[in-house]
Design brief:
The structure is a single chain. The protein is an alpha/beta fold and 570 residues long. The protein is built from 23 helices and 21 strands. It has a 6-stranded mixed β-sheet, sandwiched between helices. It has a 5-stranded mixed β-sheet with strand order 3-2-1-4-7. α11 crosses α16, α13 runs parallel beside α14 and α17 runs parallel beside α20. The protein is elongated and about 90 Å long.
Amino acid sequence: MGWIVGVDGCKAGWIAASYDVSTTKAPILQVERSWSGLIRSLPPGSLVAVDMPIGLPDHIERAGRGPEQAVRSLLGARQSSVFAIPSRATVYADTYQEACSAALATSSPPRKVSRQGFHLFPKIREIDGFLRAEPAWRGAIFEVHPELAFRTLRGAPLQHPKKIKGAVNPEGMAERRALLRAAGLAEAVLAAAPPRGAAADDVLDALAALIVARHIAAGRGRPFPDRPGRDSHGLPIAIWSFAPDRPASQDIAMSDQPVPRPMIEAAAERIAGHARTTPVMRLGTGAFGSRADVSLKLECLQHAGSFKTRGAFNNLLSLDVPAAGVAAASGGNHGAAVAYAAGKRGVRATIFVPEISPAAKVEAIRRFGADVRIGGAQYDDAQAACDQFVAETGALKIHPFAAPETMAGQGTLGKEWQNQEPDLDTVLVAVGGGGLISGIASWFAGTRVKVVGVEPEGSRALQAALEAKAPVTVQVASVAADSLGARNVGQLVYDVCKDTVDHVVLVPDSAIGEAQGALWRDFRLAVEPGGAAALAALLHGAYKPGPGERVGVLVCGANVDLARLQTVAG
């Protein structure tokens, strides 16, 4: 893969955002006077996404070409941003009066041309003439619509128009910049002054086209209509967007922030009303014999018994779900969350669990309506069985931790926590695969809040990765292995945590049991071992706060075997 390019028309001609996928450099913004000049400036093999119609039918039925009709309903109140592109004869008319006459003669029902649309015709003719003369480029130049790209990035219609009565709307611009930032574009690119001859909104549209080009290059392009047509000259007729379902490792990175704050903010808005706002219990200074001012964030009261519900809903609400539904491999909590979220969304869920999964968790998955399949002795076996199922059926795989959508969903917990307790100094977070701490640490990155991970002594994948400065595989043997038992956190989790997590402490299984017992005896909170691990760090002294330090402890999982809890609590 060489260069990908997003293009929009501008006052001086064409503005292009070009990105060399073989490097980590930021996209390059340039303005070219003519379309042919722009294409000549690009390296061979470039993939171009342009906000301008391609393919002109000889006759128009109803409200414009098929692509405009296909996307108009997706944009909500922004429908007016989709022009009804007329016939080829209309576009090639010399005057506005001739264009209106041609439009009336080649449309059913007859319709004229707007003045705004007429001003686009010279640029449409540039691309049309180029593609008719250069057929080799027809498979490398794709028509896009920025508002459709932004809508896809947000997962819903935008809240603010880009312009109001022809004037730039600051709220609309801020909303679009946040979406581009969440998609991986560096702040330096978004804050740069527009090149001469282009406006700030032209830059955003070109960058939105670049995001679509990125997805098309990775094989995730989505045309509207889903089977592109051809005009009488053989040119394709389709507006392209993308399906956001992707393995993170295949994405083209344009930023060093895998899960930026705007992505978490968008996830919080997306899952509002689906995930619970869980309470905080403030215990004050001296709780559990500590010198700190301690509070508990009771995420154990979340739907399906754990924080995993946040990530599950964010995946389901931001990605396209195929007819085969969703699939996941899980030791219990992730599977229960996916099953719960899928049930609420009316989506089929197939969950693969290992033989070691606690019966209580497997029963919860079934109770939420999922098809439960035993995928082998260990978690890795269940993941392999899940991957095979996804390959055979086309189901959407929801990863428990190593996916930006999952991390952003879990990051909403950090946002919610900060709103509830704005004066925290430190948060203690249990670590399994690392999706939870990645999301929370991404939210608190750059603030005064210190994020400390807590792992069992017998399951220390994140601490080992931070020590080795790369993901490594560890052996797992812990009472909390069913929820905190990842053998390797993977590259994405490591990339997030190496810069955002202050450090990781280890706790013995005995301390985890002690914390479970304390939560049950003192507060009647039935919490599983993994859910009590963060408190174990405070009780055991693995984390020693300073006098008066405000420490938030995350209690994150309630899917516990009650018979075993009775034994632990004495």
